[in-house]
Specification:
The protein is of the alpha/beta class. It is about 30% helix and about 20% strand. It is built from eight helices and eleven strands. The longest helix is centred in the middle third of the chain and has 14 residues. It starts with a helix and ends in an 8-residue tail after the last strand.
Amino acid sequence: MGNTLVEAYQKAFNADSISAFGGIVALNQPIDAATATELTKTFLECVVAPGCQNDAQQIIAAKSKLRVLILPDLQTGAKETIKVIAGGFLVQAADDILTETNKWQIVTEKQPNQKEIAELLFAWKVCKHVKSNAIVVSCDRTTLGVGAGQMNRVGSVKIALEQAGEKATGGFLASDGFFPFDDSVRTAAAAGIKGIIQPGGSLRDQDSIQAANELGLTMVFTGNRHFLH
């Protein structure tokens, strides 16, 4: 996230410039000239946005192999998702629950301030778009590490933290499901994470809370889970 579209793009690109090469960029605002200029500085396969300004079109046209898709309904999103299974298909309601921070439960002795709450909210929003088991590490409204689709949660934690590297220090971690053990909390703390957001609801929640208190972390329970399979 940024105050301008180009700022948001630059933060996202700098967070993982290696993965950005040959990648796909999705924007939630029409492409402007400043953003178009940045987009042409690296090799991208495709850009998706709800619109594109005329001066931006001229800049992007110089990249003959770049595909630009304009989807005016990009921000609306589907209300249902469909998965093909043996003998048929599964229709599921989209995960479009509005996040209400006033319903969160702060379960640790250390309390997050409003700036930290905003960062936890950002990480939580990103997390719902990541394949389960999903872990997101963020700082300064920028995704720094993603652990996706692993068979166990601590594996996702390790991948996300490894991707974030030194930038994880002072950052925040979001988990789409609860922690069944306190190992993920301890791994996050060892990497310098200062706050965690997760659904809560495990029989061993108290173990994770105790570990967070012991290590000086803040922890928030949202009361609802994000699962994307």
